[in-house]
Specification:
Length: 311
């Protein structure tokens, strides 16, 4: 019996985030065969966002005959209906988008959709830090702050698909700050990358375009940038420590662009987290991502394999 070419046993995974969108052709062993990326046109509306995803899928899937498409998308996602329930202003008018239907029409592929942070967690469980864990809490801190709880290989979505929105719990470090969701005093408004940049800009009176600029200035000894990063790290650590006490996961994985801000950020976050822990949870392992940015791509691919190809 002739075995089909490897690419013909592969799917496409898409990580649709607030800042950029990544796509990859991925096989059953979690190997990335081809990849492409583009900026997410978040302020140009759903049509342009879907168009960007469609072009990336065409690019990585050309002549490969992928079996299905898995998408991890920013926003609250109804994974059963394949629709965006709600989203922050980072993706304009994204709420209500029937993402599965429109992408099936665009690509001609069957599509499975979930939240992007849940996709991160599924990737780490499949091929990363959580390979041997029966429970894992993943926290992603980048453009926003999200989390995902995985129990025995399955994501906990909650009764209304909202489980994991860690960035929208109250934080004492964010008192008086407006959040992108429209609320006030939320963790995301102090710990996320754009919030850290905004705090530096507020203190210096100079615009800050990228978190990397803040990290570079902090490494050079600038006090304002160092303090803004530390404030975000402490806020995140306190919040995650409380969640560990609540849920008691076997393992915690911290990932995202802000988590790559350097040893000083990580040390402050980890110490704040551990200061919150009960004696019974004090030994919890808190690790960085093994897969990095590829975690969400692999998780999205796993969605496609489990919900479509092997269903």
């Amino acid at each position: 019996m002739t075995r089909p070419p490897l690419a013909q046993t592969a799917v496409i995974g898409v990580d649709l985030g607030g800042t950029k969108t990544n796509a990859a052709l991925i096989d059953r062993d979690g190997r990335v065969l081809r990849r492409a990326t583009a900026a997410t046109p978040g302020q140009r509306g759903p049509e342009e966002i879907v168009r960007t995803v469609g072009h990336l899928v065409e690019e990585v899937g050309a002549d490969a005959h992928p079996l299905a498409l898995g998408v991890g998308s920013a926003g609250v996602i109804d994974q059963v209906r394949g629709e965006v329930v709600s989203a922050t202003s980072v993706l304009r008018d994204w709420a209500g988008t029937p993402i599965r239907r429109v992408l099936e029409q665009w690509t001609g592929l069957p599509v499975a959709v979930d939240n992007d942070v849940h996709a991160h967690a599924l990737g780490e469980i499949w091929r990363g830090r959580g390979r041997e864990a029966h429970s894992m809490l993943l926290v992603a801190v980048g453009t926003g702050v999200g989390a995902s709880l995985v129990l025995d290989g399955q994501v906990w979505h909650g009764a209304r698909h909202v489980a994991g929105h860690l960035g929208h719990i109250a934080s004492p470090y964010a008192d008086g700050r407006e959040c992108v969701c429209g609320g006030w005093g939320h963790l995301e408004s102090v710990a996320a990358g754009p919030a850290i940049c905004a705090e530096v800009a507020r203190r210096t009176g100079e615009p800050v375009a990228r978190l990397q600029d803040v990290v570079r200035a902090a490494a050079g000894g600038s006090g304002v940038e160092t303090d803004a990063l530390r404030q975000g790290a402490l806020a995140l650590g306190v919040a995650v420590g409380g969640v560990v006490n609540l849920l008691d996961p076997q393992l915690v994985v911290i990932t995202g662009g802000v988590a790559a801000a350097g040893p000083s950020w990580w040390s402050a976050m980890d110490q704040a987290l551990r200061d919150e822990l009960l004696p019974a949870t004090a030994d919890v392992a808190v690790l960085d991502s093994e897969l990095g940015a590829d975690a969400a791509l692999l998780g999205a691919a796993r969605l496609a394999f489990e919900r479509i190809v092997d269903a």
